[in-house]
Design goal:
Number of domains: 2
CATH architecture of the largest domain: 2-Layer Sandwich
Number of strands: 16
Helix content: 25-40%
Distance between the termini: 34 Å
Largest sheet: 10 strands, mixed
CATH class of the largest domain: Alpha Beta
Number of helices: 14
Length: about 400
Amino acid sequence: MGMENLGRRGFLKSVGAAGMVSALPESAFAQAGGGAMTHEVAAPGPGANLPQHAVKFAVIGLDHDHIWSMVEALVRGGGQPVAFYSDLPLRAAKFLNLYPQARRAGSEDEILNDPSIQLVASAGINNLRAPLGLRVMRHGKDFYSDKPAITTLEMLAEVRKTIAETGRIFAIMYSERLGVPAAVQAGYLIQQGAIGKVVQTISIAPHQVNAPSRPEWFWDPVQYGGILADIGSHQADQFVYYTGSTEAQVVASQIANVRHPEHPKFQDFGDMMLSGNGGAGYVRVDWFTPDGLGVWGDGRLFILGTEGYIEVRKYVDVVGRPGGNHLFIVDGKQARYIDCSKVVLPFGAQLLADVVNRTHTAQDQQQALLATELVLQAQLHAKVLHLSATGR
C-alpha cells in the first residue's frame, strides 16, 4: 500500500469541485436532462424473490446497536436465532424480548461448542470482534460481524490466514451500503450499465456523536479503531464495490480531534483519497451532525461514470422530500429521481444461502477484506491535523 505525502491544501485541491455536487439545487439536475426531472419508484428488486434458509444462528456481543438490524436481516432471510451471550443485562433483556425463542447462553464456549449452530453474529466492542471471529471459524462456524470487524493489520493477516485454513466465511456488515435500499438500487443501476464505467466515488458521511449515550470504549482509538477504521470502513466498502476494484491503495489520509478535548485520543474528523484498479475514491467522515437535522447523519454518495452520474441521499433530503432513500441519476437522455424506499435488502437472505451453499454471493470475501485493509492503512498513516473549534 503506497502513501503519498500531500499537504492539506494540496489534498483538498486535488478533490476539486466534486465535493460541491451536493450543493446543487434540483433545478441543476433538471437542466442536465433538458427538461423537468422524471419521478419514479424503484421496484422491490431481485431481493424480494430470494429463497429463505432456516439456518440456526447465535449472537455473541450486543455492545453496539447495529446488532438489532444485523439480526433482523438474518431473520428476514429465514434465519433462526437460537442462542446469545452477553454480559450487558439491559441489552440481554432486550434481546430476549425481541427473540424469546433464543436461549441465553452461560458462556461463549456454550455457543461455540454447539454443533447445531452454523453462524455466529457479533457487534461486540470493535477490537474484540476479529479475535472472536477467529475462534468462531476454528470451531467450524461462519462469522458475521458488524463493522469495523478488524482494527489492526496484524489481525487482518490472521483473519486471512484462518479463512484460508478453515474455508469459513468472515462476513462484514457494511450497513451504509448493504442496509440502505437506495445504495442497493445504485448497485443495480451500475450493473445495468446505466452510467457507463464508474470513474470515481465520493462518500460524505457525517455522524451524530450523541455523547451521553456512548460507552467508555467509544472514545478509545485502541478499542474502536480510529475514525477512518471505524465509520470510514463503510465508505471504503462502497468505493471497492462500486468501482469493482480488486486492488487499491491509499493516496492520502487525515484525522483530527476538533471539538472533543475532554477525550484527547478521540478523532471526530477524517478524510482519505483512494485509488484502485477500477476507479478513484474520496471519503469524508465526521462526528459533527447537529441535533437540528433530526436524523443521525446526512449521508451522501456520489458515483461518477463515463456516461452519467448518481447521487444517493441516504437518510434525509434537507428541505426536500420526506424520509430517506432518495436517488438521482443523470445520463445522456434525462435526469431522473428514484424513490428507493420499496427496494428489498437482499443481504441477509444471500448470506444464509452462502452458509448453506458455501458460496460468496452476499459479499465477495476478498473485496470485503480489501476495504478493511484500506482503512487500516489510512488510519495508520494518517496526517494528524491540529484544528481548533474556537478559532484559527
